[in-house]
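Entry 12.
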Amino acid sequence: MKKIYLLIAVCCTLLLLWDTGYAQLRKKGHNIVLLTTAKTHGPGEHEHTKNARLIKAMLEHCNVKNIKVDIYNTWPADAAVFDQADLIMTLSDGRDGEGDMLPQVPFMTADRMKIMEKQMERGCGLVTYHFSTFAPDEYGDQIEEWNGGYFDWQGDDGKRNWYSAISTLTAAVELPSPGHPVSKGVKPFQIEEEFYYNVRFRENDPRLRSIAAVPALNGNAGTGNTVAWAVERKNGGRGFGTTMGHFYKNWANDDFRKLMLNGIVWAAGISIPEGGVKAKFYSIPEVTQLLFNKKLKALILTGNNHPAHPWKETTEMIKQALEKNAPFQVDISTTIHDLYQYDLTDYNVLVMNYCNWNDPGPLHDSAKARTIRYLESGGGLLIIHFANGAFHYSLPGAAAADWPAYRTICRRVWDHQSNSAHEPYGKFKVQVSKTPHLITSGMKDFETVDELYYNQKGDEPIVPLLTAYSATTAKDEPLAWTYEYGKGRVFQTLLGHNEASFQSPAFKLLLKRSAEWAAKVLK
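Predicted 3D structure (tokens):
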């Protein structure tokens, strides 16, 4: 019996030691949560998602160990993720007045502010970056307590009446608190920036430290020129805010980058090493490799289509086909105007799974020009199914959005004023052409469940890679082909009606190979 008691005691001791060691191991890690919103500015500006991914890559590969960064678009489905966070950082737009169509800072709703209050009370850090420094006065006191200050856009009547201000210029950035940990290893620097200034701070806040200031702004006396600041709360929680961050390119500036990373790491409650946080400015391919273990990027453009085309479901099927056993990391845009808001050169391939059905709003001229320039410079494009009906003068309810040049990009289009049509949705056999091509090499004929399009219009020549017999036209109709546009490559297929249409392993292989071919990596 004594042996049993001794064995139990030993086991309990070992369990206690293991649990203590495990707890200590967990304490060595640092969890940072980044909240982003959709893009609303042109390429290189307000790059919320790109900023977040770059920050994640830099912090997880810097000279401060055991940092883990999670990124959420707007707000996590389960707010419990915040419970283990040492820091919450917002990289987002902010609302600027009544009726403003821009999204609110993710946590600035009544319910979410209660969640944030809980996190701040336990000592969680908070960082606000550039546009996410905007806040309505109803939350002003809380933001000042948690983070130090905010961009005050609201007058006493609740309407838009800026106390704070904005100026875009190239200017020297000074460091008013060189002894603060956030300033470690940072030298004064000069950048082009959209600076916000005259930030609303508490009067005579003893916690507040001005970290970066721009004298050229000629702001209000005292803290008017402050563009980055830090506070430490009574409970040990920390806040860091900066109104800089408009241009993505500024991350390449060594001192800007170090200042931002120092601020984030410090606000997470982590000691800043001598010389500051050291991390390189990673290129987009490097970020993609580090975060996703992928070499290439694809962007699916979607968000609207014919009511019979379930674009959400088919988009997910396309994403899976391009990511599974393939070199692509896939982003999804549900706003076609991202053709001018995104830097298209970040992507090896664009995928059109979109049609502006009943949407007469014209595509922005910049979007048209950038799409053409992207293709002419060597970018790849996949056009899926009814994306060949987009931007056409015959499209019901959308004639005003006609884009003639799209009919040179997309060589076979659906014309509602002609005899374009399809066979009844159902099963049919797809025949693989004998024309040699890397995309179809070794492929066999296959069955699919889809719409068989026919009488699609276009003058430019095509060489079909796939065909299927139409009972209506009594001939084989082309279903997929490739061609070049400038230095770019285009793959177009008329297949892809709904989820069932993507079930064939052959079609999944076709999509994967077509993306690789368009990206010029298929050999």
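Annotation: The chain has two domains: 29-286, 294-518. The two ends are 72 Å apart (CA to CA).
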